[in-house]
Amino acid sequence: MSKNKVIIIGGTGFVGFHLAKFLLKKNFEVVSLSRKGPKKIRFLKKVKYIKTDIIYKKKLLKCLHKHLNSNFVINCGGEVEHRKIKKTILSHHKGAINIANIFLNKNLKKFIQIGSSLEYGSLKSPQKEFFNCKPESNYSKAKYLATKNLFSLYRKHNLPLVVIRPYQLYGPAQDTNRFIPFIIKACLQDKNFPCSDGKQYRDFLYIDDFVNFIFKIIEKDNIKGEIFNIGFGNPKKIKDVIFKITKIIKKGTAEFGKIKLRAEENLITYPNIVKATKLTKWRPKVTIKSGLQKTVRYYRNLYL
Q: Measuring CA to CA, how many Å separate 230 from each of 23, 43, 114, 121, 208?
């Protein structure tokens, strides 16, 4: 019996790495496609790494021509430095459409697009799965354009599409310019670190729970043409999360109010996850306390 084959766009990133690691354990053949090779902390021996830019369709097709028999494509790719406006828009919108078009009319079982909770813009929380959104940043606009155009391919050409909109993901091997690893690293180094006033509420989901949901989608053949919001469904005050981290590490000092909130930033953002739990029987299992302890343990081993 042949293995299921998955292509992970952005397989060298935080989400892609954890997905690849999980799917290898499930006996999948895993191909990663990214602009760069993996960092040392995110390298997996059994993954086939391909380097190319998803913006350029001809180059992309050339790199993928041996892998058009893949069963699943999971797109977590795109520019992570959102200040690079043109690159952000092209990679998250045009890149997604390029990949989808290459796999049209192939034997693909599922095309999973990792969207963003930011596609909802200022929609009041708890946010339900809406198609007609009003995104506000360049990044979220690009993600939303990708969603709309991918659904057009779903309707016209039967692309086996599922869009997943995650909220705040965290866990081991995340880049330290992200909120939780930034705080952890600063605390481990016993630094004073700048942050906002911490009054905003965000929904935090441990990476293992997110990967488990994606696997539920892979397993369910009948789920196509759907959008899912994925988070814990229970927002936490940013200030409280920072205090939890400093309590675990017993070092570091937060300088609240040193960073201003972005103009488009909502004070309270969290998802309604009823649809996900109802259709897949998935539920998040890792509490914020347990998830932070696991994450701190990883970075402590990395830096100390």
A: 19, 26, 10, 16, 12
228 residue type, one letter: F
| C-alpha–C-alpha distance, residues 154 and 227, integer Å | 12
* H and E: helices and strands count for the chain: 10, 13
Q: Mind giving me the DSSP string for 87-130?
A: HHHIIIIIHHHHHHHHTTTS--SEEEEE--GGGGTTPPSSBP--
In this structure, are 62 and 99 located in the same domain?
yes
Q: Answer for the pair 7, 25: CB distance below 8 angstroms, yes or no.
A: no
Query: What CATH number has the domain bearing residue 66?
Result: 3.40.50.720
C-alpha pair distances (Å), 6 with each of 2, 124, 209, 263: 13, 36, 19, 39
Q: How many domains does the chain have?
A: 2
For 154-188, how does the pLDDT look when each residue is reduced to its tens digit (9 = 90+)?
999 999 999 999 999 999 999 999 999 999 999 99
Say if 220 falls within a structural domain: yes
Same domain? For 134 and 254 the reply is no
Reading phi first (left if > 0) and then psi (alpha if -120 to 50, else beta), residue 205 is in beta
Per-residue confidence (pLDDT) for residue 212, from 0 to 100: 98
181 and 108, same domain (yes or no) = no
CA angle 244, 265, 14 (to 5 degrees): 60
CA distances from 97 to 103, 108, 152, 170, 206 (A): 10, 15, 10, 27, 29
Q: How far apart are CA 72 and CA 110, in angstroms?
A: 5
Residue 289 lies in domain: 172-204+233-270+285-303
**Which CATH number fits the domain that encloses residue 197?**
3.90.25.10
- The pLDDT tens digits of the residues spanning 22-31 come to 999 999 999 9
Q: Which residue, 74, 37, 96, 119, is CA-closest to 211? A: 74
Task: Compute the average pLDDT of residues 248-275.
Answer: 91
